Amino acid sequence: MTTAASQRFWGVASGLAAGALWGLVFLAPKIAPEASPMMMTAGRYLAYGLIAALLIAPRWRRVTAAMDWKAWRALAWLSLAGNIVYFVFVVVSVHFAGVGASALIVGMVPIVVALWGLKDKNSPPLSRVAPPIALAAFAVGLIGWEALSRSNGAQHDGVQTLIGLVCALAALLSWSAFAVGNSRWMGRLPQVSPHDWSLLTGVVTGAFALLLAVPAVLTMGAWSGEIWARFLGVSLGVAIFASIIGNAFWNQASRMLPLTMLGQMIVSETLFAFLYGFILEQRGPTAIEIVAMILMVVSVVWCVRAHRHVEGG
User: Fold this and answer.
1) Domain extent listing, the chain
2) What three-state secondary structure class fits 150?
3) CA-wise closest residue to 197 among 69, 66, 109, 23
4) 197-255: per-residue pLDDT in tens?
5) Residue 184, CA distances (Å) to 111, 176, 222, 251 in order
């Protein structure tokens, strides 16, 4: 295996691992529905910030020596776009529009990121990546349509559903900006490892979460011990698996893959979100959902082959 092929393999593996862990995010509002979007966000990212600070403390001076003012400023807006703002919009969207509609719209991130990445010098021509991108869009549309059709019997308020869909669109835009910006900055700071960049992101995100803590507490009602246990368990679990470990895998993929290929990796988040939903709902996938998931996998493999052809690997 050539160096380029090996880097591509580990980049894809890291991207898929990140998607598997990030898919847990869509279940959080369902497991702890009593928590408001601000409370859920504050809990998750306070835990993320605390754990990240503890892990990076022994190496703080060495790691931050490579950071100038521009890097810290970039880290601040990346923390907001990819964590705080994104997660608030996702929680609101799941509450008002459901997991299916939220995952459908947010699942279009690969399309936005891949199209954005076509401007890069090392990207393949549009004619080569357009088919897998279109296939991914079709697969996301199929799985989202199936999820929406299953919820037709539910009585949703029209205004609330519209708010949920708009929030999902806002989450899509926020995360797309993060994915592109994060990939760019990872390339500018090769001396900072993907894991350390994730931990620094966690520290900055935790600082922002402190600002949400007071208003978040004001939004909560009288919680029982059982509700508190679920909320703390969800906050800690999502912080460890999605934020700490998942972000580290994603940063590794961001360093090893071009944007057009990196965008396709985000498809796995939608795929795993629906798989976890099946487990939570205690049912198996329908025929349409199976077809859509197969198409998602095919689109990723197709995109990998398109980049291998360009690299000559």
Assistant:
1) 3-311
2) helix
3) 66
4) 888 999 999 999 998 888 888 877 778 889 999 999 999 999 999 888 998 898 888 88
5) 18, 13, 45, 11
Q: Is the dihedral of CA 83, 88, 91, 97 positive or negative?
A: negative
Q: Give the total residue count for the chain.
A: 313
On whether the CB atoms of residues 223 and 231 are closer than 8 A, the answer is yes
SS3 annotation, 242-279: HHHHHHHHHHHHHHHCCHHHHHHHCHHHHHHHHHHHHH
User: With the C-alpha atoms ordered 140, 16, 88, 181, is the resulting torsion angle positive or negative?
Assistant: negative
Using DSSP's 3-state secondary structure scheme, residue 144 falls into helix
| 162 token code pair | 């519209």
The rounded radius of gyration (Å) of the Cα atoms in the chain is 19
Residue type present at position 112: V
Cα dihedral: 168, 174, 177, 180 (round 10): -70
How far, in whole angstroms, is CA 2 from its chain's centroid? Answer: 30
Q: What is the pTM of this model?
A: 0.78
Q: Quick one: CA dihedral 208, 185, 87, 243, positive or negative? A: negative
Burial of 207 (0-12, 13-18, 19+ CB in 10 A): middle
Structure tokens at 196: 């350390």
pLDDT tens-digit series, residues 257-306: 877 677 677 778 878 887 887 888 788 777 887 887 788 778 777 776 77
**Cα separation, 21 vs 255, whole angstroms:** 19
CB 267 within 8 A of CB 140: yes
